[in-house]
Amino acid sequence: MESQAFERKKKIGLALGSGSARGITHVGVIRELEAMGIRPDVVAGTSAGAIVGAVYACGRLDWFENWLLKLKRREMAGYLDTSYTLRGGLFKGRELIEFFKQHVGDHNIEDLALPFGAVSTSLESGDEIWLTKGPLWDAVRVSIALPGLFTPAKLQDEWMVDGGLVNPVPVSLCRALGAEVIIAVNLNHDIVERDNQPRSHESPETIERFGQKNIPLEKLPLDMLSPRLQQLLENTASTIMTQYIKPVIDAPNLLEVVTGAIHIMQDRITRTRLQADRPDVVLMPQLEDFSLIETERSKEAIEAGRQAVRDMADSIRLLAG
Prior knowledge:
Elements: H1 2-7, E1 12-16, H2 25-35, E2 42-46, H3 48-57, H4 61-70, H5 73-78, E3 89-91, H6 94-104, E4 116-122, E5 128-131, H7 136-143, E6 148-150, E7 153-155, E8 158-162, H8 171-176, E9 181-185, H9 191-195, E10 206-209, E11 212-216, H10 227-243, H11 254-276, E12 281-283, H12 298-311, H13 313-320
Parallel strand pairs: 1-2, 1-9, 2-4, 3-6, 9-12
Antiparallel strand pairs: 4-5, 4-8, 7-8, 10-11
């Protein structure tokens, strides 16, 4: 009995961090771990990590990867049902969740073969919420509710928002689910430095908006919105800026301010949480700047995840053995 206990394989946990479109990288991480013969025993996810973790726990990663590799940005935008009242956020997220229910399956978390948990944040108390029971996709929906972008969602009689506000890389939840060796994936390690890089305004791909010419497309990331809402926002902004405001072309737009502020916050919180509750291995994929739904770069993101595992392969084998 003592010999068997000594030889028992350690329970491996995978903590998948937040990161919008950069979360596609998690697919590559899982693929490369599997190629090494390592299959996590538990998985925890925050925000984008919750989506990938949920799909993996349902045994549908093959379908998910194939879907991502074919997915175009315009098609992805179609899953982001617009909140025309703009109450609480730009998108309601219902169509995306229904899509996953249809193609991955509508399950309760406790019925999954692979133990799974998602992190969300109470909008009322600011508490970190661990979701380890109940409807799977309801848990994912409240975990991805990025403030200003997705509307908050109500679950367990409480309004909740993105788990990245309190725990961007859910090491603690992974440990609570029984993991003895934790592999954490941090997608926020260089995000602030990347966001602060000066942007080129020399791109020939320019458009005429707000009565001004040569405004770079990167400054107007409206293609994720429905045509109706795009026109509404453009008409309103054009009227205001033409009549009352001298346009400041170099100023960040609303989406850049919201996402930039959240990136700074998540970077700082991630550093603090990983210092307080250290995982055994931290994977830090090297990614170029990804926009919110830049799915046409899925192949690149997946390969970045694979490479991050290769870079730490010796340490992973040593700990998992």
